[in-house]
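Q&A log
Question type: sequence-to-structure
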Amino acid sequence: MVTKECDNDSKLKILPGQFVLEAARRAIEALEASLNRSVLADWLEVLKKSKGRLVLSGIGKSGLVAQKISATFASTGCPSFFLHPVDALHGDLGMVTEDDIALLLSNSGESEEILRILPGLMREGIPIACITSNPKSRLAQAAKWVFSYELPNGEGCPLNFAPMASTTMQVIWGDLLAAERMVSSDFTIDSFAKNHPGGSLGVKLIKTKDLMHSDFPQVSPDNNLIQILAAMTAGKLGMTTVVKSEKIAGVISDGDIRRALERAESIGQNPLELRASQIMTSEPTVIDSDIQAIEAAKIMETKKITFLVINDKFKPIGVLHIHDLLAARVI
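Response status: OK
Response body:
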């Protein structure tokens, strides 16, 4: 606990964490005031034209931040990987190709391990950018683009020794660069979904067209009960669509058939004479293929149904079953 003298001579207790917050806040304010948009734009242009990958490297805490930044770029459409500087000195530098771009992290800009991989990168003609608090460091001097930050209140560490505000600023620089790159490359929510097929993020972004059955059962309105049952058995969805002139006329489920048989029995009609037009549920619920699967799940829940017909320009192109949503962990 730290104490601070007040005007009334009383002592106000200040939590150490407040110094961390103040150090980070002041550093962010300084970055906002000094951000060089032209340097950023030039780096983005080179990255956009690059046919290779973004190579991140750093040692210690900066190395951990570099791994996070690399993961962010990779998940947002920019091929990227983390290169440990020590491993690079023992052969892994061969992973870097002449088409790649390097982004190196060092708070001091004088980390020996990072400085030792510079000659190898420079011999290959690899464009180098760096994130550092020391724009006059040897790393900054070797880099074409310097993304620097200041620490007006130091690290915020009680000992002013452990990396705290500096790693915060490195993370912010990484996110800033990744965000700018996403916009400049027209990265969309659909692109994000492709890079996150698993986990809660991917599930929330799955479209119905990604889960629907494009090979779905179909019958015509005049097909008889035997033909309907054959189509449903082959389709293995417990239903069939009824299509007329390439447009959806209705759907037939197991429940529709049971109800039709009960009606036929009540009026003495031969069930084998039943036609699809007499059995089907007309005007079924249809949705667009670009609707998110989670929205389709809500529709099924609200209407208490187990499948939806997917339409494209008034033509059926697929069927989405509740089992597909369960399998994809949407519900």
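Response note: The two ends are 48 Å apart (CA to CA).
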